[in-house]
Design goal:
The chain contains 7 helices and 3 strands, in the order E-H-H-E-E-H-H-H-H-H. A hairpin with a 5-residue loop joins strand 2 and strand 3. A 3-stranded antiparallel sheet has the order 1-3-2. The protein is mostly helical. The longest helix has 19 residues, at 126-144. The chain has helices at residues 28-35, 39-48, 66-81, 86-95, 98-104, 115-122, 126-144, and strands spanning 26-27, 55-56, 62-64. It is elongated, with a radius of gyration of 20 Å. The protein has a domain at 1-95: Multidrug-efflux Transporter Regulator, Chain: A, Domain 2 (Orthogonal Bundle), CATH 1.10.1660.
Length: 145
């Protein structure tokens, strides 16, 4: 927290703090800390991503389940590491197969975790499109010479 004498500006996004604790429910502050983002960013993401829907307690507090926390981390990865737009991330999350989503949120180091297989599923059919783009780029380079 900022003290009244602290005039530094705190970023809305910071580094993640580590593993998700083994709990049933998380409050918004805990999720924000785990994801390295501010609570207002989480509230905004709730309005933009229908898949992210924490329950509300009797007192109106947001209660996130583990799958919600994993979704927050995935949204952060898409937006800040993969540089998706919000609309692009929303469409990606809504259209990806359930099996890929489950494997993507699995902890690394498990024997069934095969990154190459995940990538193959995600980019199925992209090889032909990539070849077409390469061909067009080569043509542009040839024209510019």
């Amino acid at each position: 927290m900022n003290s009244p004498d602290d005039n530094t500006i705190q970023p809305a996004v910071a580094e993640e703090t580590g593993e998700i604790p083994d709990k049933l429910y998380f409050r918004i502050g805990e999720v924000a800390r785990l994801a390295g983002i501010k609570p207002y960013v989480l509230r905004f993401w709730e309005s933009e991503f229908p898949l992210l829907g924490p329950k509300k307690s009797g007192t109106g507090h947001r209660l996130y389940r583990r799958k919600d926390v994993e979704m927050v981390l995935e949204i952060k990865r898409l937006l800040y590491e993969q540089r998706f737009t919000i609309e692009g991330a929303r469409k990606f999350l809504e259209t990806r197969p359930k099996a890929v989503a489950a494997r993507a949120s699995a902890k690394p180091g498990k024997a069934d975790d095969a990154p190459v297989a995940r990538q193959a599923v995600l980019f199925d059919g992209a090889a032909a499109a990539l070849d077409a783009v390469r061909k067009e780029l080569r043509e542009i380079v040839r024209l510019l010479k």
